[in-house]
Amino acid sequence: IHKSGICHGDLKIDNILMDKYFNPKICDFGLATELKGENGSVKESEDVGSDKYKPPEMHNHENYDGVKADIFCLGSILLIITAGKPGFCAAKEKDRYYRFIYENKFDDYWKTTGITGLDEDLKKLIFRMLSFKPENRPSIKEILQSPWLKEIIDLNSTEYKELEDKVIEEFSKIKQKIIDKNGTLTFDKEESSSDRS
Known about the structure:
Helix content: 40-55%
Order of helices and strands: EEEEEHEHHHHHHH
Radius of gyration: 20 Å
Shape: globular
Structural class: mainly alpha
Low-confidence stretches: 187-197
Distance between the termini: 40 Å
Strand content: 5-15%
Mean pLDDT: 83
Number of helices: 8
Number of strands: 6
């Protein structure tokens, strides 16, 4: 969408849908606007977006780069889906957790939030995407070339395809089990309730 001259302005988990093959689809373009300004990307500040996702410059009601704002939102999304919880309440200097990102205290952030088990390359990527300074956030191209994502892309081309096929096959079996000829939900009488869960 950036190549089409548009920034989303409200990227968050709620605005990402999955198709039947688990491909993400961005929705809700209600706050999307054209990229404009001297460099083609600076927008006038508006009080839009969701606190857990929007970048500091939007909280501070400053002019901001729509592309870099979307990158910040994507960083927030990436953190939530990999850590299983939001990394901060709002990207403000005084936020209990975001202040470590603001102060560029990498180790202190991960230690204080209690977020563990993430790959080091992933943590570095997230930290860059959530940078207080927009100019320090990576471009989409840099994100795609990051060591963590390159590893995921390599996995997707081989093992992920096999896993995807297995998941789709299992879902097909489950669907056949629970949907009868009339399209209503049924269960085999022999199955116990614990089997169905």
